């Protein structure tokens, strides 16, 4: 018990707490960061970032529009460091030999940006809920294995989660005490949310709608006009400054972003396997299942404690109309509940689309745990509670951080049994996890660069001879010696009907999952 007390006393020193956070963040993010995975979207973003920089350098600003997401922040964050790396090393073109180096530069840039944003988030969250709850919640979501796994990807969802919450926190503080500086800063972060992913525009709409209701309740028209137009103006200026394609054809590219988002995100759908059934629209249960399967039992226990301790407080706040506008938890809850339910509508459903919820969920869990601890009357009961909490924290955060390293993307909650059991509920996507390890495994077992057949060729083509990687859905079976399937991928009908038979020869396992299966041709 004395150890727990000494730990608690030590962490009262904010400098010690922050240094400890940096160490933990670094150990879980920076080690083996480049060669752990090559996701197919990341391969695309390497090309897009390269074109983005070419557009800036050549003055062909329309090339800075590369995708409907639009991913502008990601291209700035990674395109510039990669260009600097090219200038220093003289290596200017992507090929199978230098892709990992470029990938490492890109991913280090993204993770460093996440670290900076996390400290900015901690700063503003401390102003809203106090340092203790803020630090605890930031620490928790940073250690949530699924969040960690996605933060190691060359992708945008974690950036979106951080930009959105920072923008919401600054806008909330600005409601309480208006200043033009804070208002401009809120608009900047809300713009960065949109420039990361188009769904981020929802944060701006929420802030403007809530502020309208807030100032209407106060009957303060002047306050509304100052707040509303300063944030909106800052949002517009930041968006135009950072997105050069808008300098050329603003209406066209903005309409492209939203038209493509509607076509691909809402109507097109995305293949998922739920309870063994393949579907293009995973339905209403998908996201609740994702949150249960991909969240630690510690987080879920914290949310239950929050529900137990906070339900009366929230109901009292809801009864008092004025109090609704002065409770930051209600403010954030309105946005994140809205985000959660809006995401049910698009037919394209992906588990990582729930990542923006994690910072808010850990905030609620932290509040619930600290409130429950404060509710306990005796020092003995508090010590017992701290001991149980520390044990659960070690079991559900420290152990997976060690055993699942570096493939946190594959994490599933032990509440659903083994990883294979969880895989029967919502099927795991290969997403380029352990592709560099797969390449080494194939070369060591089957000789120097045999011809390979994949369903998704992008990750392996990035680090393998392009001519030796074939698409088994398109190419004939004579174009490859080994057929490689990722987790939950099936041999296409085209191959089954070809007359050539393949025999499973070996597998590469990742965190208990048969992640990559390798088939060889049977002799006729």
UniProtKB/TrEMBL annotation:
Highest taxon in the source lineage: Bacteria
Organism: candidate division WWE3 bacterium RIFOXYD1_FULL_43_17
InterPro entries according to UniProt: LipidA_mod_glycosyltrf_83
Location(s), subcellular: Cell membrane
Lineage, highest ranks first: Bacteria, Katanobacteria
Membrane topology reported for the UniProt record: Multi-pass membrane protein
Keywords, comma-separated and alphabetical: Cell membrane, Glycosyltransferase, Membrane, Transferase, Transmembrane, Transmembrane helix
Transmembrane segments: 16-34, 115-141, 153-172, 184-215, 227-248, 285-308, 329-345, 357-376, 388-409
GO cellular component, one term: plasma membrane
GO molecular-function terms, A-Z: pentosyltransferase activity
Protein name: Glycosyltransferase RgtA/B/C/D-like domain-containing protein
Any GO BP annotation: lipopolysaccharide biosynthetic process
């Amino acid at each position: 018990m004395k150890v727990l007390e000494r730990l608690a006393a030590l962490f009262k020193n904010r400098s010690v707490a922050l240094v400890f956070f940096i160490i933990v963040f670094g150990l879980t993010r920076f080690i083996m960061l480049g060669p752990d995975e090559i996701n197919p979207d990341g391969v695309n973003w390497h090309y897009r970032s390269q074109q983005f920089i070419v557009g800036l350098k050549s003055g062909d600003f329309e090339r800075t529009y590369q995708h409907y997401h639009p991913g502008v922040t990601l291209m700035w964050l990674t395109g510039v460091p990669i260009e600097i790396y090219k200038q220093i090393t003289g290596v200017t073109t992507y090929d199978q030999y230098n892709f990992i180096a470029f990938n490492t530069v890109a991913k280090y840039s993204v993770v460093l940006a996440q670290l900076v944003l996390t400290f900015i988030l901690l700063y503003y969250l401390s102003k809203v809920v106090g340092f203790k709850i803020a630090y605890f919640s930031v620490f928790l979501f940073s250690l949530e294995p699924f969040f960690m796994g996605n933060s190691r990807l060359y992708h945008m969802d974690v950036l979106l989660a951080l930009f959105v919450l920072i923008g919401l926190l600054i806008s909330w503080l600005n409601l309480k005490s208006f200043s033009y500086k804070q208002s401009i800063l809120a608009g900047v972060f809300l713009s960065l949310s949109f420039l990361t992913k188009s769904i981020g525009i929802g944060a701006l709409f929420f802030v403007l709608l809530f502020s309208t209701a807030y100032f209407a309740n106060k009957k303060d028209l002047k306050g509304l006009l100052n707040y509303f137009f300063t944030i909106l103006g800052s949002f517009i200026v930041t968006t135009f400054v950072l997105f050069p394609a808008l300098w050329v054809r603003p209406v066209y590219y903005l309409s492209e972003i939203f038209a493509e988002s509607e076509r691909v995100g809402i109507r097109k759908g995305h293949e998922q396997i739920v309870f063994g059934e393949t579907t293009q629209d995973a339905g209403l249960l998908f996201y609740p299942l994702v949150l249960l399967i991909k969240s630690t039992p510690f987080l879920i226990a914290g949310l239950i404690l929050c529900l137990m301790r906070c339900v009366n407080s929230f109901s009292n706040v809801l009864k008092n109309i004025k109090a609704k506008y002065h409770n930051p938890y209600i403010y954030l809850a309105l946005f994140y509940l809205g985000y959660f339910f809006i995401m049910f509508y698009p037919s394209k459903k992906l588990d990582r689309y729930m990542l923006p919820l994690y910072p808010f969920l850990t905030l609620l869990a932290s509040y619930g745990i600290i409130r429950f601890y404060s509710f306990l009357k005796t020092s003995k009961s508090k010590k017992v509670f701290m001991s149980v909490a520390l044990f659960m924290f070690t079991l559900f955060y420290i152990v997976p951080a060690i055993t699942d390293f570096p493939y946190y993307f594959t994490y599933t909650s032990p509440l659903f049994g083994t990883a294979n059991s969880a895989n029967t509920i919502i099927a795991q996507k290969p997403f380029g996890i352990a592709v560099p390890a797969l390449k080494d495994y194939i070369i060591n077992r089957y000789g120097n660069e045999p011809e390979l057949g994949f369903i998704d060729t992008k990750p392996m083509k990035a680090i393998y001879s392009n001519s030796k990687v074939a698409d088994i859905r398109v190419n004939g079976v004579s174009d490859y010696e080994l057929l490689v399937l990722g987790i939950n991928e099936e041999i296409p009908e085209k191959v089954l009907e070809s007359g050539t038979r393949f025999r499973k020869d070996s597998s590469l396992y990742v965190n208990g999952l048969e992640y990559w299966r390798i088939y060889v041709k049977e002799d006729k």
